Amino acid sequence: MHGRIKVRTTEEQNLQKHKEQQKKLTAYRMGMKQILATRDADSYNKDSLALSAQLLTINPDIYTLWNYRKEVVLIEIKKSYQDEVADDQKLIHFFEEELRLTEQCLLSNPKSYGSWHHRYWILNHHTKPNWQREFDLCNKYVSLDDRNFHCWDFRRLIVNKIGISLADEIAFSTERININFSNYSSWHYRSTLQILNDENSVANDLILVQNAVFTDPIDTSAWFYLRWVLSHPGITKIQKEDLLNALEQLQELEPECKWIIMAKCWLVKQGNLEKDAICRLKRYYTELIKLDPLREGHYKDCFKVF
Amino acid sequence: MEYELPTEFDIIIIGTGVIESIISAAASRIGKRVLHIDSNNYYGGLWASFNLDAIHKLSANTEVLDPPTDLINPDETTFALGNDFFSLKNFKTDWHIPKAETQPENENVEEKNETESEEKPEKPITQDSLIKDGRKFNIDLAPKLQFARGEFVELLISSNIARYSEYRSVSRVLTWLNGQLETVPCSRSDVFANNKVTVIEKRMLMKLFMALDSGDQEYLNYDNKTFRAFLTDKKLTPSLIHYVLYAISMSTDETLCLQGIQNTKRFLDSLGRFGKTPFLFSMYGSGEITQAFCRLSAVFGGIYALSQPLSSLIFDNENNFKGLICGKQRISAEFLVMGAEKAPPEFIKSPPRSFIARAVFITDRSIMSSEKEHLTLLLYPPEGGKNSCVIIELGTLTGTCPKDLYLVHLISQQVASPEDDFKHCVENLFSKFEDDKKPKILWSCFFSIPDSNALDLKTGVPGNVVLCPGPDLDLDYDDAVKKAKAIFSDLYPDTEFLPRAPDPEDIIIEGDTEDRNDEDEVVLKPEENTDKVAESETEAKSDNDQEVPKSENEHEE
Question: Where in the sequence does UniProt note compositional bias of the Acidic residues kind (chain B) (predicted)?
Answer without folding.
Answer: 504-521
